[in-house]
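Our consortium's second objective concerns turning raw sequence data into structural hypotheses that experimental partners can test. To show how far this objective has progressed, the report includes one record in full. It was chosen at random from the queue rather than selected for favorable results. The single chain below, 423 residues long, was entered without modification.
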Amino acid sequence: MRGTPVFVGSGFVASYLEGGGSSWIPLQYLLGFAAHGVEAYWLEVLHGSGSDAEDERRARLFFDRAKRLGAGERTAVLLLPAGEDAAGSRLLTPHPLGPAGIRSAIRAGVLLNLNNQVPRAHRAEFARTILYDIDPGMLQLWSRQTDMGIGEHDLYVTIGRSIGEPSCSVPDCGVRWHRVWPTVHLPVWPMQETVGARYTTVTHWWNGNRGYDVIDGELYEHNKRTAFLEYLDLPRRAGLELELAAYITAGETEDRRALQEHGWRLVEPRHVAGTAQRYRRYIQSSRGEFSCAKPSVVKAAPGWVSDRTICYLASGRPAIVQDAGAGRHLPRSLGLQSFATPEEAAEALRAADLDDARARREARALAEELFSTRVVIPQLIELAGIARPVATWSQRREAQRPDAAPPPGAARAAARRAASDAV
């Protein structure tokens, strides 16, 4: 039995190859499905620039980088002309079967549509479509302002653990949301024993296209700048080195000066995280993560943990992140702490640093127990009714590898949570 092909649809990698972290979002799912014996493809949407030569150059760069990341030939670019005219679109792929073979798989396949990146005109080609919300709270709020076709999918999945709950003020858009955690593929994010010197994060300073969001009738800023400036004095409060790989332009001299005068170290994101490999290396060479959330996300409180944070956890790097409503869905852990005030942030940083070995162990344990593709992908397979082919001998052997082992059992999880209660 061939099984059901799955297409992980994104539209934020080929158009932004300078952001190494963006590649990891669809790649985690692609590698995770493949490890479970599913015929999986990465379908990248690229909006045309008006220059065929430039569009094809971008597509070639995307294919080359995907190959280096282990995606090989399981990639395709849906090149859309200006205006997203379906009749004028092109499908590019290095797969030996070519565009015709990929389109045949599409007709029998399931689309995992990350944040609705594959547009209406092209969703109809798939046998089944899943809207996969990777920006919980914001996606639902934006859908009230723009007709995004949210109700036109067959299944709705979100990484926001509070979305759709009665206590959550975010609109459910009239659909039933199935909640899962974001996922990380542990074989390509191994535990790191060498400890770095600084707590870091990779982030934008300003949001590219939406500066504000209206939540419960009030206006909230949708950028990281406002959030981080509220924690300007944190390096002194915590007595630790904090570093930002943030896209702050050279002309924003006042912001740069304020951060540096208060003890923040600034690095250029394109230098330390401009490719997926550099991004991984930067995270793994850190001491841990410290990051703020956008004010609009804090207000929405969708129960969200970022795709970046779980990469820190998988690497054995504790994360201290501003509370976006996920805390009540998580076990207490020194490996992942949330905060709501500068005082709480400083206390969490000091606690993780004081018992660094334990914080690193508990960070990795969370990745194994909650966020691993070994845990999340089977949930998606069951929800979507994805048929898998009979496993080959090599696939069964791969599943038995130590780094692909099933998550620890309930006894270990209970022991870890009990130990965490002493924090």
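The partners drew two points from this record. The chain has 17 helices and 16 strands. Residues 187-365 form a domain with the Rossmann fold fold (CATH 3.40.50.2000). Both points have been shared with the crystallography group to help prioritize constructs.
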